Amino acid sequence: MRFFSTLSLLASLAAATILENGQVRKVNFLDTKVASIGSNSTGWKTYGPNATEISYKGRWDSKHISWWAAPGIKFGFTGDQVAISFGQYTSPGVLVAYRLSGQDWQFTNVTANSTHQFVSRSTPGLNATLPSQLPLSFELRVTNWAYGVQLSAVHIASSANLIKIPNHSKTIEFIGDSLTSGMYATYEAFSSFGYNIGAGFGNVEFSVTAYPGICLHDANCWGNPRGQTYQWHQTSDTSWRASQIYGESPEKWDFRKHPAADIVLINLGTNDNNTANSVSNTDYLNSYMKFVADVHEVYPKAQIILMSLWNGFYATGNLRAERSLQRRDLGGILQHNDIAPQWHPTDVGHIKIASHVMQYIRIKFGWEFGATGPEVQHETLYWNDESGY
Ligand SMILES: *[C@@H]1O[C@H](CO)[C@@H](O)[C@H](O)[C@H]1NC(C)=O
Ligand SMILES: *[C@@H]1O[C@H](CO)[C@@H](O)[C@H](O)[C@H]1NC(C)=O
Ligand SMILES: *[C@@H]1O[C@H](CO)[C@@H](O)[C@H](O)[C@H]1NC(C)=O
Ligand SMILES: *[C@@H]1O[C@H](CO)[C@@H](O)[C@H](O)[C@H]1NC(C)=O
Ligand SMILES: *[C@@H]1O[C@H](CO)[C@@H](O)[C@H](O)[C@H]1NC(C)=O
Ligand SMILES: *[C@@H]1O[C@H](CO)[C@@H](O)[C@H](O)[C@H]1NC(C)=O
Ligand SMILES: *[C@@H]1O[C@H](CO)[C@@H](O)[C@H](O)[C@H]1NC(C)=O
């Protein structure tokens, strides 16, 4: 199984055309680029990236650069326009998903040193919003796992205000590799089961700390210089982009400044177990034991689910119960058509994993589903309404 080959392949994959069963996917990416908007220029009110009304989802650093898989922002606003300026550390042509007030996702490519207008008077749904659904909300997610954006300003109508939208009270964190980060899925991280579980609940905050090719054990695997036992403590991931900005001194992630995870789902080991990377079984097991203890140290109350895609689920309690792993065997949920030729889940495979894991979490930990309709995964609506052919 080849899970990963080289970093340069990675970079080119990220910018490639989206393929669907080997065919170019028909997509509708809107052109949102506008001329640059200065601070508080006529008709606009400008907020800096540190405005407390902006909630950052996933990992962002002190320069407001996004990292890992499917990071995003969310805020409420009044008025009828939203534009965002992206800073110099934004990847070239990175595809972002965005939406107004929980309506279907739209996609657009953004790039460094540019301003994009996402909401205007002509945005469908803007006028249809009922007063009871106000304020309007705006969300944006980076779709690729290696690429990121740097937020430099948010602009809204001059007489309008940004509004803080409270966070959900429960938080889940995913720690994984290419499987959790959606490598080879059509919208990459945005199609991944990590994203699908978090967004699928509809009433939880989530963070997908996953990167293709990464090992659990701290070793260079498929060009990722460090393993998750080290990298999970850093704000940035193992990408080439991160090495260009931070070299070998990334910013540490300050867990105390963010809500503690209630559930941590770990899916690691596929790369440790690959002969291309020199990680012994003993190193892997020892690192796994230490890592689970480490996660409990950081989040003392978290429930940790160890997930092994091909064998089932294992849950550990919150009392350092590594040695009495509880096993829930859901083996056999993935069939032939859920695994793509590159040995990663298909879009439907990701959705299937997500729905099983969500049921597992509901049954095991009593988390009820809170989504009431908004789209979770874009462009997976296939149907037949032809009765005879
Ligand atoms: C936009 O992003 C998609 C997906 O990464 C890519 O296929 C396309 O080439 C990009 N377009 C531009 C104009 O950068
Ligand atoms: C824009 O104007 C508002 C007041 O209307 C002010 O609070 C804010 O700091 C200004 N933003 C910038 C970037 O100058
Ligand atoms: C945001 O940063 C600016 C400087 O760039 C500073 O003047 C301002 O006080 C900061 N605001 C908050 C809410 O931290
Ligand atoms: C929600 O949590 C995020 C991540 O810690 C944080 O950036 C944001 O300020 C929080 N939002 C609110 C409204 O408390
Ligand atoms: C963005 O702006 C910065 C600062 O002006 C500059 O150094 C950088 O080359 C620009 N990047 C691009 C892609 O234009
Ligand atoms: C929303 O209302 C404004 C003002 O009445 C109008 O100019 C605009 O065309 C409407 N937008 C849509 C999408 O219908
Ligand atoms: C992968 O895991 C299997 C089952 O535990 C083990 O027999 C094998 O030696 C491992 N391979 C590598 C390269 O770690």
Automatic annotation (TrEMBL):
Residues 1-16 form the signal peptide. Pfam families: Lipase_GDSL_2. GO terms for molecular function: carboxylic ester hydrolase activity. Transmembrane segments: none annotated. Residues 174-323 form the SGNH hydrolase-type esterase domain. Coiled coil: none annotated. InterPro entries: CtCE2-like_dom, PCW_deacetylase/CE, SGNH_hydro, SGNH_hydro_sf. Keywords: Hydrolase, Signal. This is GDSL-like Lipase/Acylhydrolase-like protein. It comes from Zopfia rhizophila CBS 207.26.
